[in-house]
Amino acid sequence: MKTRIILAALLAFATFSALQAQVGEQRYNFALGVNGGINLNRVSFSPSVEQKNLMGINAGLTARYICEKYFSMICGAQLEVNFSQRGWDEFYEQYPDVHYTRTMNYVEIPFLAHLAFGKDRGVQVFLNIGPQIGFLIGDPEKQSGDMEGMLESMPYVETEQHGKAIDNKFDYGITGGLGVELRTRAGNFLVEGRYYFGLADFYASTKKDYFARSANGTITAKITYLFDISK
To answer: Cβ atoms within 10 A of the Cβ of 99, count?
Structure first.
């Protein structure tokens, strides 16, 4: 746990250092917009749980401030407030009709350093990276198929997580991704792939608790539209 907190603190420090750096050519470009895409989420459990990626929605608002250009690199910061569906989908190869799904709905807030290369008008390639926090607002469960019949023939299948209440609704971790931006007079269009590595366990993970780890890992593909407010 201490290692996770230290990693998150170091990344936060690096992000805010990027915000405060004042070298190179000043840009002063502020943009607002919307984003939307899909999540593919899998939970890292210990003991392990047999599962496949759960598909969910990721959509929200984006604000970006470009503060400077250092040589050919454009530097800035980006803040988002998103609705994000995570969770897990249990799948059993011998019993394909049996499923247990827990959809975890979060309000997530990434704090990102934005680094880009390219033209003011035209195509840019960019990297977004930084810490992210989230707040769980719901976690509906869904079960289908003959779960009891499957457990009679496969009693070793892990089911402690079924119906188990979430202990920690506050989530934090590290996120980062690469993308391409097309900058036009009509606005800025971005396509991005991103990965989130959760540092927080949503089930209690002390020595007396059942799960030693229960953290989200999310692949996100999203499209963003931004329009310049000031330039």
So the answer is: 16
Looking at residue 190, its pLDDT comes to 98
Asked whether the CA dihedral 11, 14, 20, 23 is positive or negative, the reply is negative
Give the tokens for residue 119: 């033209």
Beta-bridge partner residues of 133: 109, 172
Of residues 223 and 9, more confidence is placed in 223
Check whether 20 has a pLDDT greater than 70: no
Is the distance from CB of 178 to CB of 193 less than 8 angstroms? yes
Q: 3-state SS of the chain: helix, strand, coil percent to 5?
A: 10, 65, 25
| DSSP assignment string, 190-214 | EEEEEEEEE-S-SS--STTSS-SEE
**What average pLDDT does range 71-77 have in this prediction?**
85
What does the pLDDT look like over 190-215, one tens digit per residue?
Answer: 999 999 999 999 999 999 999 999 99
Specify the DSSP element, H or E, that contains 4: helix 2-20
Rounded to whole angstroms, how far apart are CA atoms 43 and 87?
7
CA distance 133 to 153: 41
Q: Please give the Cα distance from 27 to 160 (Å, whole number).
A: 53
DSSP labels, 13-71: HHHHHHHH---SEEEEEEEEEEEEEEEEEEEEEES----BPEEEEEEEEEEEEEEEEET
Average confidence score pLDDT of the chain: 88
